[in-house]
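Troubleshooting: if your tokenizer reports a length mismatch, compare against these two reference records.
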Amino acid sequence: MGSHDTDSTNPAPSLPTPSTRAGRDGLAAVLARPERAVIALDFDGTLAPIVSDPDQARAHPEAVPALAALAPKVAAVAVVTGRPAGVAVRHGGFAGVPGLEHLVVLGHYGAERWDAATGTVTAPAPHPGVAAVRAELPGFLDRIGAWQGTWIEEKGRSLAVHTRRAEDPQAAFDLLREPLTGLAARHGLIVEPGRMVLELRPPGMDKGVALADYVRDLGAACVLYAGDDLGDLPAFAAVEELRTDGVPGLLVCSGSAEVTELSKRADLVVDGPAGVVELLRDLADELP
């Protein structure tokens, strides 16, 4: 967890107590001014359990009811994900849900935006390097002997190479990381590492940029962000920067044994998507 101090005051006894003063201040601000609070959440590993095939990932069965109970009580709820926005909407079951009329999904690290109010996705033109990598990647993996057990996920504005199905997922991940970084760089892309996945995507946009822009555009007074993976570290950093600008924030880690970096930075660690859902439900119950 994040740094600890001796002040154990909990602004809401029914909710878990953040381990840091900054986290407790963030939670207290959400409880005191929910009408100006942004609740932002990653999708895979946070709202949806991690599975071997991302196409089979679905939101925790209680996630949508918890969000629908919470959303009308706060300024905004946003799902911030590396997935295409439309895919996250389908896999999350977010469309047409009473209570989620103002939900926003910031997909592809904020390059796409889906608004429940209109049901449409807005996005700029795709980066040309993605098409070049798409054409080259299968042969590239074959040449370096890393094809067995790895597979490519087509994400439209990016491509991801998964190693979870390989005989030794971590060894395959380690083998691929450097050559894929070189391939990405040749086409103006970067590599984003995750939980047994390496994503090749355009630079300049990450969850931190997306979250900070969204919070500032809304003029929010406080923010809660929950994530589980390395791609969520920029969002954690954005919340920490917002704090220095006087916007209290609570950092929540959807805990797992695969990634520990987030738990070290978080104010509050919960037990995976089930723990996130429980936190959302308890927060909705606590707010008027």
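Reference record two:
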Amino acid sequence: MAADAAEEIRGTAQGTAPVPLSVLDLVTVGAGRTATDALRTGVDIARLAEKRGFHRYWVAEHHSMPGVASSSPAVILAHLAAHTDRIRLGSGGVMLPNHAPLVIAEQFGTLEAMAPGRVDLGLGRAPGTDGATAAALRRTDRLNEGADDFPQQLAELIRFLDDDFPDGHPYGRIHAVPGPVQATSPGGVQSAHRPPVWLLGSSGFSARLAGTLGLPFAFAHHFSAQNTVPALDLYRDSFRPSAVLDAPYALIGVSALATDDEKEARRQVQAAALNMVRLRTGRPGLVPTPEEAEAYDFSPMEEEFVRSWNANVIHGTADEVRTGLDDLQKRTGADELMLTANAHGGDVRLRSYELIADAYGLPAA
């Protein structure tokens, strides 16, 4: 599986982009819009990304957030698989402690059967929500246990994906279906291929684990920028060649919004920042409009948060965004840039990816 997995993981830069470009979609829901609107926009973005040469499109698991409609990545990815043909689809990520490993192996085995050879399984160890919601998801209030057990959960999941529990293991006669067991059953013609596993993180824990296991690593620069370079250095220093990769491969998630007018970019980014202010202060809601953000009376503490948050959002005209992305890639040495466009309107987000594709001369079709 090594050569195939490495080819799926390592994308090819298109146009004048320094590295492959990809999309991270939170399926955001703006004020005055519905989850149906957001999911339709997701399909539009995935189709555009496929046409313009973006390497992959990921969705991220979140819960109990009115402005984020991506609580069920596997369901969304199945929908996207029916509306695309070539682009890689994946989770950025599934929060593994929220789920039984067998369930995730079954879900992504099903996705692999739907879209053979183009599914990624990105895994995180955070809950993707607040503590109370995490307790409801896991039916326990022992939340630290889930994070601490992440390496064991990961090992179990990979065993299910590969269908290779050792003899005598309690799960040795249990198989994730669809999966490799179908290829070894009498008359079996099922492909033994399974989705490549990525580890996601915003600190050093998953960076070190991904390096030790020889897995690809995705870092959440878009909300943990101060940790990006240290985490990538730790990943590279910890890396041990594996059957999956013979050298490190790291992508970073980047907040990037391009508009036709620089002023409009600032308006949209300010609205997204207000959404984060409300989320961080326990008041999650729909993504506000730029007009609502302009009328909002930010406290001094909130203003400081917004300044800090927006400092890590690359925004402006397409040329300004391209320059910012190029500089970030040089500074971090990232092997891939995964762009997330946070804005109130789906049309704004769609236009942003189109403008960035144009700025880099990505294929028109």
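Descriptive notes for reference record two:
- The radius of gyration is 20 Å.
- DSSP finds 15 helices and nine strands in the chain.
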